[in-house]
Amino acid sequence: MLYLKTSMLTVCRRCFTDKLLWRRGLSTTQNLSRTNFSHQNILSHFPHAKKNAVFLSKFVYCPAAFTRGLFGGGRGSVHQQTLKDIAENIRECKFRRIVVMAGAGISTPSGIPDFRSPGSGLYDNLQQYNLPYAEAIFEINYFHHNPNPFFALAKELYPGNYRPNLTHYFIRLLHDKGQLLRMYTQNIDGLERMAGIPPEMLVEAHGTFATATCTVCRRDYQGEELRNDIMEGKIPKCPTCKGIVKPDIVFFGEELPQQFFSYLTDFPVADLLIVMGTSLEVEPFASLAGAVRGSVSRLLINRDLVGPFAWGSQRHNDVAELGDVVSGVKKLVELLGWKQELEALMNAGGDKASINKE
Q1: Spatial distance between the Cα atoms of 212 and 210, rounded to a whole number of angstroms
Q2: Nearest Cα to Cα of residue 207 among 142, 266, 148, 138
Q3: Tens digits of residue pLDDT in 64-102
Q4: 214 annotated to a ligand binding site
Q5: Taking every annotated instance into account, which residue ranges of this chain make up the domain Deacetylase sirtuin-type (predicted)?
Q6: Would you say 12 is a known binding-site residue?
Q7: Positions marked catalytic
Q8: Is 217 assigned to a binding site?
């Protein structure tokens, strides 16, 4: 791919061409992707951050731009940060606007399978639902054709079947200490809410079982109103129009929740990004890892190097703690000196057994 330098920014040829067409008035809304077009609509809700929002919305989906230093980064002979440095800065409250990005890897210790692990992942164990292909279970067109496989799966994944683990409570503790700006999660299991993280602190990028909507009349429901039907193997129906009531999970072919676009205001002001338990393969969520300023520390607690930690230019303030996610969080908690506080929080939440296991 050819890279061009313009206005002191290094961008890929596609971004440069799009920008050039836009300046000449040749681009139309038809040339915008659905997500980018949504960005244009959403900006009106954040007038106070319009400048930063416009900047981020044009580049957040270009990994090349991030890896070529779009947001800057540490250069020269500077100290490479460590997990101990991150812990010290959290403990001394030097980080007050922490953003957490999390994926299925933080929920697998609670017993919930992830989607893509060969052999044990959810997509490898869906034969019982007689799907044409695994991903069909989360495709909106297939759902309208045959909702039964999704609701059979929903019975297994519905909130309450599993308990939060140490990782969820660590994020809750960040909130309790006033240091969490927002948690962005790919998970639909609701364990963040069960751990006591308030809904307004969560961006559930792929939706939630906490609310539901009739697919016909669009009436809103609370997730608990569907629980009995789902647990009994029934498809929940709207009493008003008899349409199917679907949990507000984002299917392939549906728009992202409006709250996802909070990143337009959260990421420009974040002072620490923690990425945990995710492969950073699903867009547009994955690209958010590159949306913080170059001066912002980024901590990866994960099985493998992913996203900009794997293919980007290393920043002096990037830290990667590889291996089991719970073990990595435990190590951070011990460096913070928060072990007793975390155990007390888990006990209060009724998860004392989880501490003993972990």
Answers
A1: 7
A2: 138
A3: 444 344 444 444 567 899 999 999 999 999 999 999 999
A4: yes
A5: 76-339
A6: no
A7: 206
A8: yes
Report the alpha-carbon distance of residue 56 to residue 271 in Å, rounded.
Answer: 16
Q: What are φ and ψ of residue 327, in 5° steps? A: -65, -40
Whose tokens are 């090349």? That residue is 64
| pLDDT at residue 312, as a whole number | 74
SS (H, E, C) the chain: CCEEEECCEEEEHHHHHHHHHHHCCCCCHHHCCHHHHHHHHHHHHCHHHHHHHHHHHHHCCCHHHHHCCCCCCCCCCCCCCCHHHHHHHHHCCCCCCEEEEECHHHCHHHCCCCCCCCCCCHHHHCHHHCCCCHHHHHEHHHHHHCCHHHHHHHHHHCCCCCCCCHHHHHHHHHHHCCCEEEEEECCCCCHHHHCCCCHHHEEECCEEEEEEEECCCCCEEECHHHHHHHHCCCCCECCCCCCEEEEEECCECCCCCHHHHHHHHHCCCCCEEEEECCCCCCCCHHHHHHCCCCCCEEEEEECCCCHHHHHCCCCCCEEEEECCHHHHHHHHHHHHCCHHHHHHHHHHCCCHHHHHHC
Token digits of residue 174: 């960040």
For 152-189, how does the pLDDT look when each residue is reduced to its tens digit (9 = 90+)? 888 888 888 889 999 999 999 999 999 999 999 999 99
Query: What is the pLDDT, as a whole number, of residue 3?
Result: 34
Structure tokens at 306: 């992913």
Reference 143, options 247, 30, 24; nearest CA is 247
